[in-house]
């Protein structure tokens, strides 16, 4: 990203997806054919081909010998083990709509214990997160629901006139307020939410497992300027906007105290929370 540095984001260990036993456990057909309907799996949600290549190159994923994948609704769900743990992973293809659809299919068609989202994000805080770092956030905000105000009305959080160049002043684009989104979940009344917090037990597990992990600075002869690190306890921003504008990135960091920006993590959390 221009002016907004690219980092790795593990928004995973983010949400404990409660199981739905109203759906048939005999989907997909492969689950019945290989008699694995009793296996609870971990769902791994990848953003791109690059993420999948990183998983494959790690040598940690072993495809199932009988049914290595299942195609559902145009998506390929890969079945196997990761360090001897049963998992199923899928590439979501980018943006919140694709992410939500992929995760919903994953939860409907497999018996999923929880979701890990592994993808890329832009750093909005160069003091704490630099290219190559891995971010494990405490919470993610959906900053893509805007209430665009009328010109002359009370100012919202994002006032476009403050970004006029070279002199601040009035702007016909007026201002924007950030709206909450409606979360529908089983057994609860609809809630208006802006932040999607991580599940405490899963976040604690992530810190224990990853805190001493050493990340490589060089890979296949290509090296980062500095040794990468894992950054815990940040907040993330998520929307359908691919943010390359430094001024807007600085605004998000200042107003919402977010350190990263991506296009999928809030949608992954949104769908997982409602289950």
From TrEMBL:
Residues in Nucleoside phosphorylase domain copies: 43-271
Any one GO molecular function term: catalytic activity
GO biological process annotations for this chain's record?
nucleoside metabolic process
List the InterPro entries hit by this protein, alphabetically.
Nucleoside_phosphorylase_d, Nucleoside_phosphorylase_sf
Q: Glycosyltransferase among the record's keywords?
A: no
Alphabetical list of Pfam families matching this protein: PNP_UDP_1 (PF01048)
Q: Which UniProt keywords apply?
A: Signal
| Keyword Signal tagged | yes
Instruction: Using the record, list the residue span of the signal peptide; answer none if the entry has no such feature.
Output: 1-17
Please name the PANTHER family in this protein's record: NUCLEOSIDE PHOSPHORYLASE DOMAIN-CONTAINING PROTEIN (PTHR21234:SF45), PURINE NUCLEOSIDE PHOSPHORYLASE (PTHR21234)
Q: What is this protein's record name?
A: Nucleoside phosphorylase domain-containing protein
